[in-house]
Design a protein that fits this description.
Blueprint (H helix, E strand, L loop, with lengths): L1 E6 L3 E7 L5 E7 L3 H16 L8 E5 L15 E3 L2 H13 L3 E7 L3 E7 L2 E8 L3 H11 L5 H8 L9 E2 L16 E3 L10 H26 L4 E5 L6 H14 L2 E3 L7 H8 L2
Parallel strand pairs: 1-4, 4-5, 6-11, 11-12
Antiparallel strand pairs: 1-2, 2-3, 6-7, 7-8, 9-10
């Protein structure tokens, strides 16, 4: 059995790949890298009644992996490049060999998978951290569930400037419903619900367009969305709307938030 651990800036995820290719997954909140890695590993062992002697190796990745300088629990521990882990995990979950991966964490990384080649194309600092940070400043909350509940009741017309607000005609292939400027309207009457939706919309529109440009530059028509931000229902809807306009298919595989941990377990 191989254990993959993704030590992120806010959450640590663990994936165990068993001999029959079953995947067992858990996650814990990050405190510090060593506590997160050992605690998450211990939780995996205890909850699933694993025996240490049955674990062949541990593969660690993510922002906190550099803090781990020795084998964990006497088991051979390897460090896996995070971009390789994202690529391997996204490829495994999508069951495709030619994809672009948009991994939404605190920021967003864009990866190309072309057969056995995995290439880090770049990314954007816009991601889950953007939502939390802006909400803390504008809404006085950093609780993601609260932000999401606000956003579900929001109205973008009170926050964003649409093409229809500035012209009576379409601009190029974009109709009047498309965003001309995120937060470009911002009415005095905008509620916290409107602002929350505006924050999420801004974040996922940026991620969506960066992903579209990456896919088109590589003549690819599929973007696999992974990471913590992959299961945001409002974000999924925003990306789906973008996909319909630009003919780029955004896919949200099951267990996408564990893609990096799964990819780490599959590496080497």
């Amino acid at each position: 059995m191989v254990i993959g651990i993704d030590i992120g800036s806010t959450t640590t995820k663990v994936a165990a790949i068993k001999l029959n290719n079953d995947i067992i997954k858990i996650k814990t909140k990050a405190i510090d890298a060593i506590t997160s890695a050992t605690g998450a590993f211990g939780k995996m062992i205890m909850e699933n009644h694993f025996k240490l002697e049955n674990i062949e190796k541990i593969n660690i990745t993510g922002a906190g992996a550099s803090k781990i300088t020795d084998n964990l629990f006497g088991i051979k521990t390897n460090k896996i490049d995070e971009m390789i882990a994202i690529g391997a995990g996204g490829k495994y979950l999508s069951k495709k060999d030619q994809i672009i991966i948009s991994n939404i964490g605190t920021g967003t990384a864009i990866i190309e998978v072309n057969g056995n080649n995995i290439t880090h194309l770049g990314g954007t600092g816009v991601g889950g951290g953007t939502i939390i940070g802006l909400a803390k400043g504008l809404l006085k909350t950093s609780d993601f569930d609260t932000i999401l509940q606000y956003a579900l009741k929001g109205d973008l017309n009170n926050v964003d400037l649409n093409i229809g607000d500035i012209t009576e005609t379409n601009i190029g292939f974009l109709n009047k419903e498309f965003t001309a400027s995120n937060f470009g309207k911002m009415l005095d009457t905008a509620t916290k619900e409107d602002i929350a939706l505006g924050i999420i919309n801004l974040t996922y529109q940026v991620i969506g367009m960066v992903s579209v440009f990456a896919a088109k530059s590589k003549n690819n028509d599929t973007v696999v969305v992974t990471g913590n931000g992959s299961n945001n229902p409002i974000g999924q809807k925003i990306l789906t709307n973008i996909s319909q306009t630009y003919k780029i298919d955004f896919e949200f595989p099951v267990d996408a938030e564990y893609a990096t941990a799964i990819g780490a377990a599959l590496s080497i």
